[in-house]
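To: structure desk
From: M.T.
Subject: fold request, one chain
Message: Could you run this one when you get a chance? Sequence is below, nothing fancy, just the single chain.
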Amino acid sequence: MWGKSAVLLSFGLLLAMLAAWYLPALASSEQPNTAVRLLQVMNGTGAEATEVEVRTSVKLANVAGAKELASLASGLESSLGLPQTVQSGQWENGLYAHQNVTDFQGIRLLFRLIGVPEQGHYAAHVVFSLNGKPAQIQHLETLQQMIAKALQQAGTNPQFSTCIRGMYSDKLSVDQQGGKILSIFHALHAHELERLADDTVVSISGYTRLWEPSIQLNGQKMNLQVATHQDTVSGGTWITVGTPIITAEY
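Reply: Done. Structure tokens follow.
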């Protein structure tokens, strides 16, 4: 079992090495990465960004049982330099569940592996979620690259969802909310595909050619969703921008 200081040192060195490679390349590129671009356009509408979430969910190999699931979880933890969890996976309603939550300099990394019984074996499903502040967006991107590499080595090609949440200080009407969302669509050269609205909430989904990852919506590509809703407690208005879709609560 590693000590806490050793874990942080190992994880920190790995992060620093990746940052030394990745961040200069990011700074020298002509266009900002997707998360930075989303943050920029949100700030451009007058919102104050409060939280960034990056998430992926993939299915890995089929394995024989709990021992193999535990070994798979341990291997992913080791490849990322995460502390090994004290407890092995637990059984929850017939499913094998292994969870590891690590806090690194204010960024919360959640790793969860679920074993689902399928015809005499178990299908391993993995979830990684990163939560941090807008000022940490470069480090979140670096951690995302680490996770992507680990999952690729495990035999899959993950697609990540990015959500950025912020707030307007004013209580915006539905029409005003729609205007803010459409200004983001305009800035990202996106066209609208679907809109949902009620007395306090607006959600618009669409597609932009500025980045590739997308999902299908009624037979069309979709890679952008923006949603707003009034906050009855603070009197402000929340906004969430996501690609290819919002995976956080809005």
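Reply (cont.): The chain has five helices and twelve strands. Let me know if you need anything else for the meeting.
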